[in-house]
Here is the input.
Amino acid sequence: MKSKKTLGLAAVVLTTIIWGGGFLGIQIALRAGMSSGVMVTIRFGLAAILAGIVFRKKLRGMTGRDLRNGAIAGVVMILAFYSQTLGGAYTTAANNGFITQLDAVVVPFVAWMLTGRRPRWNTIPAALLCVAGVFALTYWNAGASFSRGDLLTLVCAVLFGVHMAFLGKAAAETPFEKLLFLQLATAFVCTLPLFFFRELPTLAATDWKTAILPVLYLGVLATFVCFLLQTWAMKHVGSGTVAILTAAEGVWCALFSVLLGFDRFSWGLVVGGLTIVAAATLAEWRPGMFARKKEKEPQGETVDESGKALYNKDV
Here is the structure.
């Protein structure tokens, strides 16, 4: 049992590292001339196909409620990912990664509207910490400002918060495999009109030799494989532990970004980024969250009591 817990922790850390690298994947593909629309179409097309193949035996007997939950989750998710990807074209990879973590603060407020459950005491100070972190991240250096890309990423964080809060409700009604496949498939279908009517002319301008590996990374690893790893890890590691570890996603993104020359090191990056990570951690913290589980979690349960989904969506 202890070895499975260790493997579960390793799986979560690996997932967080892959997600952190995903922001750089977005930057590389964008610099290679790939448009945001083409990127999300390929990403979700790959992930939906893989989910359909792996879970094909568990996708039978879908109900109207399953289809509704998957469709709503998929529409909100694709809007969030599109905002994130488009925002990456106008801001740094580090800002894109850190600001996305604000979704942890949004979730309790959206869950309050959906379920009537009031946010815990730590939500308000976490929100204030987030504001301070974003300020440090965007205004620390002389001449820096809150860019259009930062605003789009902030919109993305709010949408991810709505997405996760909705999953907190939908996961009790629809099995994980069906919910994951349906939202990925819905997201893919939603990208097709934009792809065919607007993005097709941009294909010729894309440097595919440079862009193909990053977009495969995003679709296969950062979307499908990470969802599987995190879901498996939740069977052996507490949801609170997973929430805390995944809050470090922005740190990995910033580390890779500076080491690979996408961003310059600055104290604003350090102070702002760590403040946002602290805010995300505070938003997820609750008494006894690291206590050892004594009972098996109910089948189909995929969210912790704060309403945060056990599978993240960040990159």
Notes: The radius of gyration is 19 Å. DSSP finds twelve helices and no strands in the chain. The chain has one domain: 2-284. Residues 2-284 form one domain.
